[in-house]
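Figure 3 (text version): structure tokens given as input.
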């Protein structure tokens, strides 16, 4: 796999591409006359530090903040690489405080997997990205919000908006008006902290209703190699809505009509797992 690649995706926005070898997500940078807002703290100091070096090499304005889309380790454990305030939803801050109190030795991590506080998927990639966690510093957000938070970068602004969703209840998106770039983090993905990966009909419908109104020229998802244009973003949301409608109408019978559409079949499978889980509650 290639290393993360620096890309300029609009007049004021850069992206650092994801890397699935250690589940590194895409990082972003939004710049104005006053400074640069980095989107995501990254999976490690090495991850975010490499992006910061790329920004400096291109003469981008100083970083004035780091915006987190949600609490998961790959989006937040590298924030210490940059001396700037971390901005996050209040629920993100609360969960990171829990993470910061943990013992991160291999033995303690294995125990959390066994008792259900961690999942094997994350533990595996965390070991790849951070084989030595003896000096791990989890930076807690110093600026928190609940609904929406705006960062004025000087002629450019970034709106950080809580949208929730099945993947993580604290999920936020970051929208750049004018450039109409939307950083989605992982909000459209399935929930991983569950007995099996899953989505819910209600969760998908509510999330699509929240993100659909944003004007979008470029959409950036956390672990997608490619960015999406307006048509691609609309198609992504339409697929989610169609899968939810099929499962709502057909139940288990929703799988057969989409068997030849790999992406839709995967969504239907996640939704069927989620609806089965909801019935067990």
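Below: residues designed for each position.
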């Amino acid at each position: 796999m290639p290393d993360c690649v620096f890309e300029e995706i609009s007049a004021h926005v850069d992206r650092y591409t994801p890397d699935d070898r250690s589940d590194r997500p895409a990082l972003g940078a939004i710049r104005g006359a006053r400074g640069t807002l980095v989107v995501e703290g990254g999976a490690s100091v090495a991850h975010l530090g490499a992006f910061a070096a790329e920004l400096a090499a291109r003469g981008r304005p100083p970083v004035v903040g780091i915006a987190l889309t949600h609490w998961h380790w790959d989006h937040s454990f590298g924030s210490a690489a940059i001396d700037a305030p971390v901005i996050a939803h209040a629920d993100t801050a609360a969960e990171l405080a829990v993470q910061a109190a943990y013992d991160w030795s291999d033995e303690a991590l294995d125990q959390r997997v066994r008792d259900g506080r961690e999942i094997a998927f994350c533990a595996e990639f965390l070991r790849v990205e951070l084989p030595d966690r003896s000096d791990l510093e989890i930076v807690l957000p110093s600026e928190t919000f609940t609904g929406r938070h705006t960062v004025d970068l000087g002629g450019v602004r970034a709106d950080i908006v809580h949208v929730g969703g099945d993947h993580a209840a604290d999920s936020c998106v970051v929208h750049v008006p004018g450039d109409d770039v939307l950083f989605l983090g992982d909000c459209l993905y399935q929930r991983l902290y569950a007995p099996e990966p899953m989505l819910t009909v209600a969760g998908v419908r509510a999330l699509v209703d929240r993100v659909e109104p944003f004007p979008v020229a470029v959409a950036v998802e956390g672990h997608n190699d490619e960015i999406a244009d307006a048509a691609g973003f609309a198609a992504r949301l339409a697929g989610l809505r169609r899968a939810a409608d099929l499962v709502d109408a057909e139940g288990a019978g929703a799988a057969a009509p989409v068997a030849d559409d790999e992406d839709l079949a995967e969504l239907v499978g996640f939704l069927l797992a989620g609806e089965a889980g909801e019935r067990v509650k």
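The chain has one domain: 6-195+215-228.
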